[in-house]
Amino acid sequence: MQLHWLDWGAIALYAAGTLALGLFFARRNRDTEEYFLGGRSFPGWAVGLSIVGTAISSITFLSMPADAFKTTWVRFLPYACMPIAALIAGWIIVPFFRRGRTTSAYEYLEERFGPSIRVYGAATYVLAQLLRLSLVLYLIALLAHQLTGLEVTTCIVAAGIFVTAYTVLGGIDAVIWTDVVQTVVLASGSLLCLAVIVNLLPGGLSQIFEVAAAHDKLSLGTHIDGELVPLGWGFDLGTKTAPLMLLMSASFFLTEYTTSQHYVQRYCAARSLREARKSLLWAVAVAMPTWLFYMFLGTALFALFTVFPDPEASAMLDGTRRAEEIVPWFVLHHLPPGIAGLVVAAALAAGMSSLDSSINAISTVAIVDVYRRHWAPDRSEQHYLRVAWAIAGLAGVGMIAGATGLLYAEGPTLQDISIKLTSLLGGGILGIYAIGFTTRRGDARAIWGGIGCTAAFTLWTMGLFPDAWSVPFDTYYTAALGNLLAFAVGYLLALGMTRKDRDLSGLTLWSR
User: Fold this and answer.
1) Are residues 129 and 362 in contact, defined by beta-carbon separation less than 8 angstroms?
2) What is the dihedral of CA 401, 403, 408, 414, to 10 degrees?
3) How many CB atoms are closer than 10 A to CB 336?
4) CA–CA dist 125, 378 (Å, integer)
5) What is the spatial distance between Cα 261 and Cα 277, in angstroms, rounded to a whole number?
6) How far apart, in whole angstroms, are the C-alpha atoms of residue 304 and residue 306?
7) Are 403 and 138 in contact (CB under 8 A)?
């Protein structure tokens, strides 16, 4: 089935509007303060919706409904820690980044531990984001190919050029305001999907709950050999249990809200500390219902295809086909013309809101933490702005090249490489910040010791050591354990080292 001309019209209208926003904000960019931070003038609600747009990608749009469609709601459990992490970040961590005129998350690392740790944080972030950009663009292209019938290479190039263009032109203004629009488009498209399902079911909304209850679809368990096995509530590192999944979730969200340039740049772009904190409250208030809705959408699709059996949907349930295909299948075969186009635009918007944030953040970190700090410290604002445009453009080119290369990859895929490299290089970053925030000890020597031990630990969990050194726990917990190890090793080394006198005013919880 191909898209109707009305669908193409909806997609074109969305694309034109997004590009127009980029061109509009391009007129404002006269220096890096505006290009990276929008003049530090954003309201909390806009920053919050932008955070949601960045967090929810096309993969989320496909994978969460797919999980609920095929299994249960167990995937939603980790998101329960998001509000706690947001409150900790907003009221304890964000003030550290609102001191003075901070632009980058890694400026704090230099103030607290020295320039080498700042460069480490910046370099690992840029590398991880370049890999992530390629992978996300590749997955967006696969989705666009499935929904539109266009060649995958064409989708990669078109989407890559489009996102790069409005991001390079508009800077953070374009990123945040297009994220706001994209979040609204995404929510509208998802609601339309549910409305059509409810209309198709003879029993309406109540029938979704009836079918879901009859098949245990709203539970937090897994189906094994046709039987529901409840999720364990112990503390066994060898399996995925509820408490440990929640701890993993807390580690993930704290890492994102505390150490990621995506978020720190937005805190700094808010017009005040109060607005920065409000942005996290807005993010929680919008993201939690959105994720909950995605799970319910998958359950609704299960109810629909239980009442009206479909061979293709059945194949996705029994594993013959990937469950992630269920949303595109429904969009193409059950939505009316025009509505399908809006949903396609919503799915693409979800991915693009992740890409634009990464491109702008790479440019910011490259200029603020490396180029202006070490290579060209005394140039004009116009010079830095031109270099920022060039770096953002190069990030877009690298993204397109990486996504295209994934089409022809043999052996380890880009996803495999991305997971391993980001685990290896970015492992323990939350532990490093935790030493900085919560203690008065530690310098670059201790932190490098923690980084080295965490890197060795991560290599071990990857299976790169002899088989006799097998990992006695589920590698799902690698990131959380790596953060604990980085903190423990870094702090113990700091205790044993000669303490250097440094002014820590405003840099720890005890001297703020």
Assistant:
1) yes
2) 110
3) 11
4) 25
5) 16
6) 5
7) yes
Residue 106: which residues within 8 A CB-CB, separation 6 or more?
118, 121, 122, 125, 261, 365, 369
What pTM does this model have? 0.88
Q: Tell me the C-alpha distance between 453 and 286, whole Å.
A: 38
Torsion of CA 124, 125, 128, 132, to 10 degrees: -170
pLDDT tens digits, 146-192:
777 788 899 899 989 988 988 888 888 988 888 888 788 888 888 88
Domains of the chain: 5-407 (1.20.1730.10), 427-512 (no CATH)
- Nearest partner of 66 among 337, 380, 330, judged by Cα: 330
Low-confidence ranges of the chain (pLDDT < 70): 1-2, 57-59, 223-228, 409-426, 463-469
Q: Which stretches within 201-335 are classed as H helix?
A: 204-214, 242-259, 261-269, 273-307, 311-318, 326-334
Rg (CA), the chain: 23
- In the block, residue with structure tokens 């399908």: 340
Residue 351 and residue 93: Cα distance in Å, rounded? 28
Residue 292 CB-half CA count within 13 A: 8
3-state secondary structure of 228: strand
Tokens of 304: 């629909």
Residues facing residue 229 across a β-bridge: 222
